[in-house]
Amino acid sequence: MSDNSAPTGPLDPQSATPLYVQLAEIIAKQIASGALAPDRPIPSENRLAEEYGVARLTARRATQELRDRGLVITVRGKGSYVTPTSGG
């Protein structure tokens, strides 16, 4: 059922750092670089899970980590958005 040839992105499952923290770091770097602009949505949990080859729960925990850091806000039924002050 799993496709070992599918790219999983720059995440390292062998790392001591949990995958959700690694994913949150990737998104945080995209926010800091301006690739994800203030007031713009970040990819959905489903999209992150698909793009990085992780479970949706991992993507959800990464989004929660970003909320805890104040980098994104989540609007129920709409998605998660980069906070206006996160760009640097």
From TrEMBL:
<feature type="domain" description="HTH gntR-type">
    <location>
        <begin position="17"/>
        <end position="85"/>
    </location>
</feature>
<dbReference type="InterPro" id="IPR050679">
    <property type="entry name" value="Bact_HTH_transcr_reg"/>
</dbReference>
<dbReference type="InterPro" id="IPR036388">
    <property type="entry name" value="WH-like_DNA-bd_sf"/>
</dbReference>
<keyword id="KW-0238">DNA-binding</keyword>
<dbReference type="InterPro" id="IPR036390">
    <property type="entry name" value="WH_DNA-bd_sf"/>
</dbReference>
<dbReference type="GO" id="GO:0003677">
    <property type="term" value="F:DNA binding"/>
</dbReference>
<keyword id="KW-0804">Transcription</keyword>
<dbReference type="GO" id="GO:0045892">
    <property type="term" value="P:negative regulation of DNA-templated transcription"/>
</dbReference>
<dbReference type="InterPro" id="IPR000524">
    <property type="entry name" value="Tscrpt_reg_HTH_GntR"/>
</dbReference>
<dbReference type="GO" id="GO:0003700">
    <property type="term" value="F:DNA-binding transcription factor activity"/>
</dbReference>
<keyword id="KW-0805">Transcription regulation</keyword>
<dbReference type="Pfam" id="PF00392">
    <property type="entry name" value="GntR"/>
</dbReference>
<protein>
    <recommendedName>
        <fullName>HTH gntR-type domain-containing protein</fullName>
    </recommendedName>
</protein>
